[in-house]
Amino acid sequence: MATISTDTPAKPLRQRMQHDMMMRGLLPRTQEQYIRHVRRFAAYLGRPPDMATAEDLRNFQIHQHESGASAGTINGAVSALRFLYTVTLRRRDLARGLVAMRRPHKMREVLSVEEAARLLEAAPGIKYKAALGVAYGAGLRVSEVAHLKVDDIDSTRMLIRVEQGKGGRDRNAMLSPQLLELLRMWWREGKRRGVMFPHGWLFPGRSYTDPISTRQLHRAVQEAAEVAGIRKRVGPHTLRHSFATHLLEQDVDIRVIQVLLGHAKIDTTAIYTKVSTRTIQAVASPLDRLTALIEGKTPPG
Questions:
Q1: For 195-232, what is each residue's pLDDT tens digit?
Q2: Nearest Cα to Cα of residue 123 among 234, 208, 262, 14
Q3: Where are the domains of the chain?
Q4: What topology does CATH give the domain 12-95?
Q5: What is the 3-state secondary structure (H, E, C) of 89-153?
Q6: Are 268 and 244 in contact (CB under 8 A)?
Q7: Peptide bond into 12 cis (omega under 30)
Q8: Torsions phi, psi for 230 (to 5 deg)
Q9: Residue 168 CB contacts under 8 Å (≥ 6 apart), including other chains
Q10: Strand, coil or helix: what is 204?
Q11: Cβ neighbours for 65, distance < 8 A, ≥ 6 positions apart
Q12: How many Cα atoms within 13 Å fall on the side-chain side of residue 125?
């Protein structure tokens, strides 16, 4: 029987699944995650996944919940196994029993403009200051920041080209004059250190042949927040949230923000209307209007 295994070379079932993902244009990162989830299921099952029953899948999901797996892990496994059983094995009957976990809706943490300035100023070195500046100044996802190349910076048109963003979509992000100057400062320093090369990574990792890791960027944000005395729970994505919220508070059209963020649906961008304090403050309370009418004044709003 064909089996997905951790051994190399790839076994027939794993290879077939990889080919199916490739033909459907799944990103390499997504392919790796799907294979990893299927491996875990195979290890739990103790036999090839193509021999699993509906009860096996149910018990695996129960096992994940009892083990304290996060909603992200559970839903990632659901996506991977749905692909395996729906596309590769053509067993929709098994895929139907998989249940995704509803994530609790939490208010997104957002920095004030003053806090964002303090955090960037406290970044550990010009490289991280420039990288975090891109996250806040252009609203890029942490993975998009990490995978930028020198050629992606278009100073003539004042754009940042984002290739293969979420969903495999390419887009242009904004490049402000201040961000361009910050990137040029890093370019000069990177050249001096001998880690910056034409057509290479804009933010090299420990080796100039590899991009900086998202983990390094997370660590840099947390270190900067501590130095800046920011007590909010922050990460690189907080800078992206702050970018969108601050644009909304500047009365930038939400459809423009949608394009800049690379959202496929306006509903995703609309989430930021819930965290924009200035949007809330701009609304006149019905109590204020009522009080004004009682006192014979012109109602606000």
A1: 989 899 999 998 888 999 999 999 999 999 999 999 98
A2: 234
A3: 12-95, 113-280
A4: DNA polymerase; domain 1 (1.10.150)
A5: CCCHHHHCCCCCCCCCCCCCCCCCHHHHHHHHHCCCCHHHHHHHHHHHHCCCCHHHHHCCEHHHE
A6: no
A7: no
A8: -90, 120
A9: 25, 26, 27
A10: strand
A11: 74
A12: 12
What the block records as the tokens of 266 is 């306006």
> Measured in whole angstroms, how far is the alpha carbon of residue 103 from the centre of its chain?
16
Q: What fold is seen in the domain 113-280?
A: hpI Integrase; Chain A (1.10.443)
Residues 201 and 198: their CA atoms lie apart, in Å, by 9
SS3 content of the chain, % helix, strand, coil (to 5): 60, 5, 35
What's at 253, amino acid-wise?
D
The whole-angstrom distance between residue 183's C-alpha and the CA centroid of its chain comes to 22
Name the residues annotated as catalytic: 141, 166, 237, 240, 263, 272
pLDDT, tens digit, for every residue of 9-41?
448 899 999 999 999 988 888 899 999 999 999
Residue 252: count other Cβ atoms within 10 Å of its Cβ: 13
Distance (Å, whole) CA 184 – CA 180? 6
CB 4 within 8 A of CB 15: no
Confidence (pTM):
0.63
Task: Extract the tokens encoding 15.
Answer: 């290879």
Beta bridge partners of 161: 172
Strands (E), the chain: 153-154, 159-162, 171-174
